[in-house]
């Protein structure tokens, strides 16, 4: 097949959607498909264009068998709702030269469009209409729901307009795919027929991310003792997770010198977190940059427990990508989730970690204490077992390829 993948994020971004899109594209290319990607210059999660791409405009590069067509875009130094809208539309505008050429070039059999942002679907919709290609609208995050529930956009007229456009694009795709049962339910509630849905969850490569003993972890490299009790948060430092709760939790353990909170990552909220830790006079919170992917197992192995935090309003809109790595590494996670959400159901029913109420400081501190001072061996075994059975990269991508092939008939 000749496949076009259209999304704002792509490798070599280390976290979030770009990581999964890169792995999917390279895997499909490895199966013999001709794979093109239309994307931006990498900027996430730092919200700064990566050094190797600064000053680059429209260009094509070949990465591991994939033809990657990159365009420039506006990247705000500080992210707000208004600036994010400009950021996303600048990308959409920059892709127009590619699309104009694509309408008159060799046809793509499949266009795979990744949201957010949801309005990227505009050009795939037009392409499908004119070229009769298969268009799969893949939802990694229900962006408009999140913006509304997190209070990022409050204008009711504007929200109504965005919900209407989102529903239009969801209804026009050949198929709609998404990553969690919770998001499937929410998409179905937007008047999308169930027979047009595909389940395409995020995955983890268990051959790359796997359990390691603490002696083989990055503790020594990061200056941490083998005797320390480490609470780790690793990944994007954004707004949905409510990460200031880590600082408040750390203050509850300031007199327990054995407990150290490690925050490893980048994102728009990092400077704020560092300032909060400084203002609170905390000496038990340590910040480190994102680590290379090949070091992920060793990084995750530093932790006695991991934190997977989200605000209550976003609890069933996203399935945290960081959780897949934690499970594959055989880690014990403290997860904030409400009963009835995908997160709660999976972690609680499979006994893979400690589930606590979101935005509840007392519950979080009690969950951390339980994770640090009780035997979590069973949680860790269950986590790795679940990853092997339900999150295996090869199995998930093979099923996705079969789903695409079925649409080609």
TrEMBL record:
All residue ranges annotated as the Glycosyl transferase family domain in the record: 217-372
Pfam family name, one: Glyco_trans_4_4
InterPro entries, alphabetized: Glyco_trans_1, Glyco_trans_4-like_N
SUPFAM superfamilies, A to Z: UDP-Glycosyltransferase/glycogen phosphorylase
Gene3D superfamilies referenced in this protein's UniProt entry, alphabetically: Glycogen Phosphorylase B
Glycosyltransferase subfamily 4-like N-terminal domain span: 15-203
Record protein name field: WcaI family glycosyltransferase
Source species: Sphingobacterium oryzagri
